[in-house]
Amino acid sequence: MGWNSVIGQARAKSILRRAIEERRIPHAYLFWGPAGTGKDALAIELARTLLCDAGGTEACGICASCKRMTALQHPNFQFVVALPASRSESAPDDGKDAPASDVVEALRGEMELKAADPYCQITIPKAAFITVKSIRDIRHESSLSSFEPGRKIFIISDAEKMNPPASNALLKILEEPPADTFFFLTTARMDQLLPTIISRCQSIRCELLQDDEIAAALTERKGIPADRAQVAARLANGNYLRACELLSDEVTKVRDEVIQFLRDTMTGNIAGVLRPIEEEWKELDRAAVEDLLSLLLIWFRDALLIAEQFGDGIISTDQRNALERFAARYGKADLSEALRVTEHSLELVRRNVYLPLIFISLSIQIKRILLHVRNT
Amino acid sequence: MKFSAHSNELQKALSRAASVLPTRSTHPALENLLFEVKGNMLSITATDMDISMTCGVVVTGLTDGAVLIPGKRIFDAVKSLTNQQMMFTIDIESRKIKMATENGEYVLQGESVDEFPKKPDFKGEGEIEITAETLRRIISKTIFSVSADELRPAMMGVLFQFKESELCSVATDGHRLVKMITKGIKSPMSAKDIIIPAKALNILSKLAEDGAAKMEVGAGHILFQSGLTTLVSRLIEEPYPNYQSVIPSDNTKELMVSKDQMLASVRRVALFSSVTTHQIRMSLTTSELTITAEDVDFGSEAKETIACEYNGDEMEMGFNFGYIVDILTHMESDEVIFKFSSSTRAGVVVPRTQRENENVLMLVMPVRLNP
After folding, report:
1. Looking at this predicted complex, what is its ipTM?
2. What is the reported pTM?
3. Which of A76, A110, A211, A225 has CB atoms 3.0–4.6 Å from A233's, for a disulfide?
4. Which chain B positions have a beta carbon within 8 Å of A147's beta carbon?
């Protein structure tokens, strides 16, 4: 509980803490930054802190308000997400009917998950937009006296999903905010928000998470062994959600393929090199290929560390034996050059170069680099 | 927790409480009713977070306790029972609710009371003396002109201005306005303005039974009590538009007509009006009021003339017939007086004779006519 529920984001946390301490909380915050960096988590934690009966800079976690916030069921708190458009949404003045019961059912389920893990992504089938109905509900709710004395807080998650009528309706609210009412918007795509909305919110940037922050969080929250957590964190590019996805067995399987690719390259098994390239990897999407190359990077990095006698710092500790054998054979090769060509290949993937070409070229270069120094 | 209750009594209380139960709320707990037994009093509470209602039922209480019971299921179950005594046995630990009747035994699974939102912390600022009948009257005379525009929430309720010995209630949607002053309502607060949401008033008007009623205003909430039923509603905390400034005081052209005659005419003529504009025309001369309507799209038109007394220059005005019908149906006097200044300014409508202790004023905006 408390600010520890948010991974990393020390800068954002200190800004928020200071705002609470000085009692200068703006009526609207906009949390923006790449996906999986904890924008919702920050917004929820800030809401919890502001609603806490103890009123400190950190939610106490034991008062009645905190307890209800744990389930995201505080009466003065609302979490707004995209919902499927109802039939009447096309008629501008008729947005009043309640959402269909299956939507409510889905929303309840998702909210439970969100309450358990603020990093979880809410996905409701066919939900494309935050509709004007949701914003009208906010307007209605904020116009009434609070159900329980105290502040009212609305979180609008993925605010870029607001359709134009919804944006305009929200703008109207932000222009004349009701007293003791706070709006927290979160978005990964600030460019899609109305500039007039952005200018009425105080922006807080959520930076990419550090690898060790993600790894520590994975170990602590999901009980993932440190080595696996490290690999996932490194591949996730500062995105905690991605790291969680990467924890599946898929990653180990892909890494084994990468090691096999390396082995085939070095033993000159051309058929072995070409088979995965032509058959499987060609079909992968670019993100998956980037993962694959990142795994190769990790391998070279670990090998370099072992070759330079820094074996304690390796990521793939479960592969220590294989790595040591690899380092013993190719340790004198210019491993940093191998790292460089792999990185270059990653760059090419991002530039949309034909995938099989990248792999074949990479395979040839790696072989040349590793063998070249060994022979001298 | 154990008590025995009569199905008819229970059904009465449940049907009241069920009117507050929200359908498809994101808070699952709100679909439950809170049952509390203390001595021989069972109180059933429902809330949709805007309005909380507690209905009391006199029962034979055996053990005290509280539990949440799925609202719709218990209501339907009790509704389908014939006049008989029911015995409720509730295990607080497992929250199993057992109902024994003449016909058989039924078991329901309840929820823990912790899930239910706490009752609003109500601190009253003194009681307002008002009878249920007066309240119901005020509501019925004003609520029809409350706005449905959610982007202007202040107008989605009725403004109650309490003064020392009178109550001024106002409702408007920007096109028409009702202002009703009721004298003889004593309030402990010398000047207090509150806006009560229309939804709460609708429930209130159904709830207010004859006899003693109690109304109390507290910070952000209003409490209303009638018999064993208590209703607490949140208030709209927005500044109400300055309605005083829109009520014209220099409308000297007075038109007096028979209410029933005009209402009937407008209703008939309106059938021929345009379905998109709902517009009717009123042409005024000293002794005749001509009401016309026209629907160009469907080639229909209507014209009726009724007798009137009018003291101004000849004039033609356009109105949305819905507003005129609303206003006339809510007037009690046999004759009504329209006061105009020009064809584009707001018209004031008052009954020819006001009821004792009461002053009703309505206002309607005309629509601009094509020349």
Report:
1. 0.73
2. 0.77
3. A211
4. 49-50, 117, 120, 234
